[in-house]
Amino acid sequence: MARCLVIGANGFLGSRLSDALAGAGHDVVGFDRYSHGVRAFSSPDVVPLIGDFLDPRNVAAAVAEAEYVFHFLSTTTPASADREPTVDLRTNVSASVELLSLCAAAGVRRVFFASSGGAIYGPQARRTFAEDTPLLPVSPYGIGKLTIERYLDYYATTAGLASVSLRISNPYGPRATPAKGQGIIPITLDRIRRGEPAVQVGDGSMIRDYIHVEDLVARILRMVERVPEHRAYNLGSGRGHSVAEVFSTIRAVVGQDFDVVRVPQPATFVDHVVLDVDRFHREYGPDRDLSLADGIADTWTRMTTP
User: Fold this and answer.
1) How far is 5 from 71, CA to CA, in rounded Å?
2) CA 126 vs CA 15, 59, 130, 134, 272: distances in Å
3) Tens-digit pLDDT profile for residues 14-38
4) DSSP symbol at 265
5) Measured between alpha carbons, how far is 148 from 83 in angstroms, rounded to an integer?
6) Cα–Cα distance between 78 and 38 in angstroms, integer?
7) Phi and psi (nearest 5°) for 91?
8) Which residue, among 142, 134, 39, 136, has the nearest Cα to 92 in the 3D structure?
């Protein structure tokens, strides 16, 4: 079993990963600000460590004893990075490079970086993206993720820091935070619960690859148990669903209709993203993922059950 540090342990993905790692018997430290005084993870075996990602002293203390570091914290979202690109550079990218430098100095065995399975590929004529597809991001968020991936290459070359980029598609499920404005499924379910109209970006034809958070975390655990052969992996369902299809499935699951407010699609959004997940399956075997309907039903049930 390994000593694991999860950066961003109080977030949607970080909290689920922290619970899963602890459940698998690893020693887990969960680094986050815990600014609201609430712990999103449920395992009593996760040791919370309060710290600021933007303070190198806090980060240095956190990585000092870690074997595996999971970088699952971002100071921006695709929308916020679009509004203020320099904030992403000054905070997220800069602090991530500092983290990698500290990991290299501390002798961390491997860094797992939560990259992007959509924005990093950018708008291209192809509809399915493999790990060796050219990376052509046009959004600040995607450019930032690619920059951090390139610094992973730099520290691998100069310091021997092993790392793997997890190019995650569109995760959804319990513990998602609709208030952060990321994730059409949890945002829409939350708006339905509040009696508010759903928001549709564009004409409804935009296609994304959705994966339930439990299926995603199960993949990551397998990569911890066996050394990855590659430096980057697409982690998604390998199937695409349009926004219109997602809304139709949500209507069927919740058993009610809802109004839709349409807003323009930002110029930096990619119209069609489906991940080629063959690399992961060849190395780690096939998956039995929840269907979109079952995953949405699980999310809705846990969201509305006290």
Assistant:
1) 8
2) 34, 39, 10, 11, 8
3) 999 999 999 999 999 999 999 888 8
4) P
5) 20
6) 25
7) -110, -65
8) 142
